[in-house]
Every structure is written in C-alpha cells, then in structure tokens.
C-alpha cells in the first residue's frame, strides 16, 4: 500500500504525463538527437545508479520488447541506468558550470547527504515523454527533505539548479530507459502503453554520486560519492 507521499508522487506523474500529451511542457525536456552516445554536451548532477537486479528486469521486460519493434532509438545499457536525486546544471556545450562550482558543490554535499538515512525506492510505471520513455521510482518523503536541503544549499553557494520542475515539493525518481532518435511509431507507442503500469521491484539507496555526464550518462566522470547513514 502506498503512503501519502508516494501517492502524491504518482499523482504528479499522471499530471506530467497529461501535460506532455497535451503539448504543454511544464518541465525541462532533453531535445531529440541522432547520436546520444557521442553527444559532447555535459551536465553536473547527482544520481543513484540502479542495482543490477533492477536494471536486468527493466532490460528484459521493457527495453527488449521495445527494441524488437524499433532498434534505432537509444536504449540505456544497465551500467548507465540511474535516477537523478538533484540536478545542478543541465547539459550544454560549453558546460554551464565551472571547476569552482564543482568544488563548492562537493563541499556542500559532504555536509548534507551524510545526515540522511538510507531509504527505499519502489520501481514501477513505464511512462512516455516527448523524447523518451522512463520508469518511475516512488519513495517516502525522505526524498523530499533531501532534495529541498540540497536545493537550498545550492542556492546559498551560488550554484542553483537551473532545471524547470512541475512541483517544488513533490519529487520522485525518473529512470530514463530509452531516448528517441525519431518520432516513435504507433506500434512502439502501443507497446509502451501496455507497459504503463508494470511493477519492477524495490531497492534501497545507500549512496549518491556527484557526476558530470552527457544526456545518456556516457562519457561520465564520478567526482565524488556520499553515503547515507
């Protein structure tokens, strides 16, 4: 049974899905590309990498059926699957951050993240977005407290998150599994919609990684990792 915050997360996902379906982009969307793997735009962000047992289920139940229909899209390999805890600067060339920004962020994260306890994500719901397909990850409100603490700290050190969000109080995990290289076919969309309410599994997050990477988490550099208590 979902707790209150998880239910709020699901409600916001439904709202986001509906706004995109109506052509109204209320949150930041990565532009469609032909060659995601070699894209040289980079971002600064903090993520949790997905455990092997969860990424394998995602590959078997979602990626493989969709790739069989349209192999031309970019499908995430297991070692790139992640969910973002807190974006800092979105992808761009040249980067929208400096080495000084990285160092200030490292210092901030080392003070904030170790104060938080480990918590669980429940992975389910494959959702179509304008240029991608993602699996959702729901949690208790520890995530909200963590994100708001990091957001406040980033503003105070002069490195505010530049991403646009649907809500400033309800956050959830978004595991992008496919980025489109062209508009998907109706057959692809039909299959994706059949996966809409798929349940994947649960996992605990023990650490958060501060990284730079491109839109599909390739050519990434792990700057630092921070353990939760």
Automatic annotation (TrEMBL):
Top-rank taxon, per record: Bacteria
InterPro entries named in the record: Cyclic_Pdiesterase (IPR009097)
Protein name: 2'-5' RNA ligase
